[in-house]
Amino acid sequence: MNAQRDARTLTRSLWRVAAYGLLILMALIFLIPVYMVVVTSLKEAAEAGREATAWDLPSKLNFESFETVWNDLSPNLRNSFLLVTAATAISALVGSMNGYVLAKWRVPGASIFFPLMLFGMFIPYQAILIPLFKFMDNVNLYGGLPGLVLVHVVYGIPITTLIFRNFYVDIPNELLEAGAIDGAGFFGIYTKLVFPLSLPGFVVVVIWQFTQIWNEFLFAVTLVKDRWQPITVPLAETAGGISVDWNQPMAGAILAALPTLLVYIIMGRWFIRGLLAGSIKG
Amino acid sequence: MYNRKDKAIAFLMISPSLILLAIFVYFFIGQTAWYSVSDWGIDPATALKKGVEKNYVGLDNYHTLISSASDYEFRLAFISTFYFTIFFLSSCLILGFFLAFLLDQRIKGEGIFRTIFLFPMSLSFVVTGTIWNWLLKPKGGLNILPNKLFGTDPLEYKWLNSDTTLFKFEWLKGGTLFYLGIALFTFALFTYVAQKRNLSGFWVVIAGLVLWLISAAGFWDKIWVPIDDPVRDIGTYQGYGYSAALSGIVIAATWQMAGYVMALFLAGIRGISEELREAARVDGCAEWQVYTRIILPQLRPIALSAIIILGHISLKIFDLVYAMTGIDNKYVKVPGILMLKGFRSNEWARSSAVAMVMLFAISLVIIPYLWSNLRTEKQS
């Protein structure tokens, strides 16, 4: 009996060693691109372009790529920050209000328009691109950031509404009814009772929208003129070129990735919550 | 609380969003649908004129896409997306489950590992594409990694410029089984979603996949008369099938999204009570049987969610391809890119038709999902 148990503990600990080994191996594989992007961005142009030595460490540290890229792309970074700040703030507020209405007020027709709303977040945006482009042109919103903000707010309505709705559903109705007895109306209940409880919902939605809008490409490449382009557009163009010094696209990739990456590393838990909210209980 | 005035205010507060979505989603889709059956931009000279008259041409544009020699690209793109979806989904699901399984072994430092596997999710597809573009250079990157690590000969894949086509089949003629496979697959998806936990749906999927593999691997041509393709004379013709150049994009996309599947599965595994697993062990289940008998079956709804979410991402894949291959790669075609190309060259009607096909494919996946999700929610 004891021998059997020993055997079992032994296999179990062997298995745990194997599991750690596999995990570390997988982690290393996942980090390969990180190694590559950092190493290449720190090389000089000529050295960075040499494919045969791609894996070698830079022969001497060189930050010129970051300098160049910063000079070239800082207007685009600024565009991205402006776009993301405005669009995220507006769509979080809109989503919060919609979520409150859908979770706590029995609005007629909600069972029909809610799914219709949600469908909007799955459509391929190519399917609305041409009319959208014409529309933006007609109302003089084509070319600049305000138009892009509007587009991101509108197409962000489904997901922000969904996240807030699922969040508010968990607030007990009794609490709100108590507020109503005290004489609070629609707005009173929202500002005094619901909004103060909303911080976690706002964190999830803000992180989600921030990441989505920062990373977005299709609208960015079709709806604005050159000088207002967000960072993803020039980045995609440099890498698409045939002969490039690869230290620059790599440095650009780091610059473009840092904001969302930082958010993810600092607030990972909330980031994951947004991810799961987008899929389960659609 | 629910007095009439407040209810009216509630409706008033949500109506701007509803109106905006009605216009920006449904009205615009309607317009695209109308453009796709019009002749707008077929004659490039009139494409940019304001107020140009658009004539109804029926399904002509779609017909051209399916059958004309010059729209060979579109068919290739459509098929590429299909293959891409299959490979991307399976690699994400397998890798994601494997990682979740490893992390479930009461690992110290689980948080660190999770962070590493999931961080690519926070990046833009454009960033991912840029990095992998460099990693897939024929004379560098992944090809010479084994050489650097173990001193073996460098690999010689051409990755994004690979001109090989695998799993070939003939369009519209020899490919009957291919379409049968797709039809069965779609049908199965519907029935499965409609009556959750219906096992027969699963077998139909398997049957569909087997049929599809038979036809895709080219066996069909061996047991039936091979038929000449109408566009074989075109210079760029390489046959319809899986363009090997897509493999690099599958790898990059998997790198980015596998962590997401891991997170979904891990959340699901953690939701299964430890008592249930312990009970299975007491009943004599080996550790691996706990996974095959207890955990995997319980994860099916989550797997389905993952398939739908990843599936719809993959059916509209665009940014990643753009960043990796640019807009004119000879061997990598996806509908999203073709649509943008058409958009830029003012071929409004044609690119609308491409977009409508994309929308249709995605609706096939999304509508049943939304429907069943909301139905179960109502029941609970």
Chart the SSEs and their pairings.
The complex is a heterodimer of chains A (282) and B (380).
Chain A: H1 2-41, H2 45-48, H3 64-104, H4 110-119, H5 126-138, H6 145-169, H7 173-181, H8 186-194, H9 199-215, H10 218-223, H11 232-240, H12 247-266, H13 268-277
Helix pairs in contact in A: 1-12, 3-6, 3-9, 3-12, 6-9, 7-8, 9-13, 11-12, 12-13
Chain B: H1 4-36, H2 60-67, H3 72-103, H4 110-118, H5 125-135, H6 141-150, E1 165-169, H7 176-194, H8 199-216, H9 219-223, E2 240-243, H10 246-270, H11 274-282, H12 287-298, H13 300-315, H14 319-325, H15 335-344, H16 348-379
Antiparallel strand pairs in B: 1-2
Helix pairs in contact in B: 1-16, 3-10, 3-13, 5-10, 5-14, 7-8, 7-16, 10-13, 11-12, 13-16, 15-16
Descriptive notes:
The complex is a heterodimer of chains A (282) and B (380). With 282 residues, chain A is mostly helical. Helices cover 76% and strands 0% of the residues of chain A. Chain A is built from 13 helices and no strands. In chain A, α3 (64-104) crosses α6 (145-169), α6 packs antiparallel against α9 and α9 crosses α13. The mean pLDDT of chain A is 89. Chain B has a single domain (72-379), classed as MetI-like (MetI-like fold, Orthogonal Bundle). Helix content of chain B is 67%, strand content 2%. Chain B has helices at 4-36, 60-67, 72-103, 110-118, 125-135, 141-150, 176-194, 199-216, 219-223, 246-270, 274-282, 287-298, 300-315, 319-325, 335-344, 348-379, and strands at 165-169, 240-243. A two-stranded antiparallel sheet of chain B has the order 1-2. The radius of gyration of chain B is 24 Å and the shape is globular. Chain B starts with a helix and ends with a helix. The relative contact order of chain B is 0.15. The chains are: A mainly alpha (282), B mainly alpha (380).
Termini of chain B, distance in Å?
A: 24 Å
Mean pLDDT of chain B: 82
* Biggest sheet overview of chain A: none
Q: Could you please say which CATH topology of chain B applies here?
A: MetI-like fold
Radius of gyration of chain A from CA coordinates:
25 Å
N- and C-termini, Cα separation of chain A: 51 Å
CATH C-level of the largest domain in chain A: Mainly Alpha
Number of domains of chain A: 2
Contiguous low-pLDDT stretches of chain B (5 residues minimum) are 223-233
Say which CATH homologous superfamily of the largest domain in chain A is assigned. Answer: MetI-like
CATH class of chain B: Mainly Alpha
Please state the overall shape of chain B, judged from the principal axes of the Cα atoms. Answer: globular
**How would you sum up the global shape of chain A?**
flat
CATH architecture of chain B: Orthogonal Bundle
Sheet with most strands of chain B: 2 strands, antiparallel
Question: What strand line-up does the widest sheet of chain B have?
Answer: 1-2
What is Rg of chain B? Answer: 24 Å
